[in-house]
Design brief:
Layout lengths: L5 H19 L33 H13 L5 H12 L3 H14 L4 H13 L3 H14 L4 H14 L3 H14 L4 H16 L12
Helix pairs in contact: 1-7, 1-9, 2-3, 3-4, 4-5, 5-6, 5-7, 6-7, 7-8, 7-9, 8-9
Amino acid sequence: MRSDSIAFAVAGVLFGLLAGWVIGSQQAGSRMPAPPPAATTAAPAPAGAGSQAIPLDEARATSLKDVAGRQPSDPAPRVQLGNMYFDAERFDEAIAWYTDALKLDPSDVNVSTDLGVSYYYTNRPDRALEQFDRSLELDPMHTKTFLNMGIVKAFGKQDLEGAAAAWTKVVELAPDSPEGQAARGALERMRAAHAGEVGGAPATP
């Protein structure tokens, strides 16, 4: 899957919808559709911004499954299959392959977080957050995990304080990174929409 585009995948939807959602969520019990979190090793265009799933290359998937069958101790083909199914927005199948890959290499923080993102897309935000916690046990400074955690808390759990804490951590860890810029923008818009309701000082450049 594509790397180094996490913040751009988030920003197009997150910056545009965050303020509207946190306001709309308290009006007549409605809220806007949640934007997808950005995967660590993947950044498909946001579903809320008119993205389309990448069609699954069935021949390549079959080939990788054959490789996985011949190499039962190799996580790589399983990660590739998880990535392919993720990009195709077939998240249940992505979950199965990411889970298999983690059984073989439990230390892969990127796959762990991609698994969490997949849980979120299958309407399991609590499971997603549990998986993010495991990612942070592997790497307590993994900014992409914190960024995704904030999105899931905001849009999956309606926990604005928790989202703010996660995004603040991203800014503290990597203020000049794409993740830091995305987190800072999210914080600024959240606090502008909910002045006095979301704790913490505004994120500084």
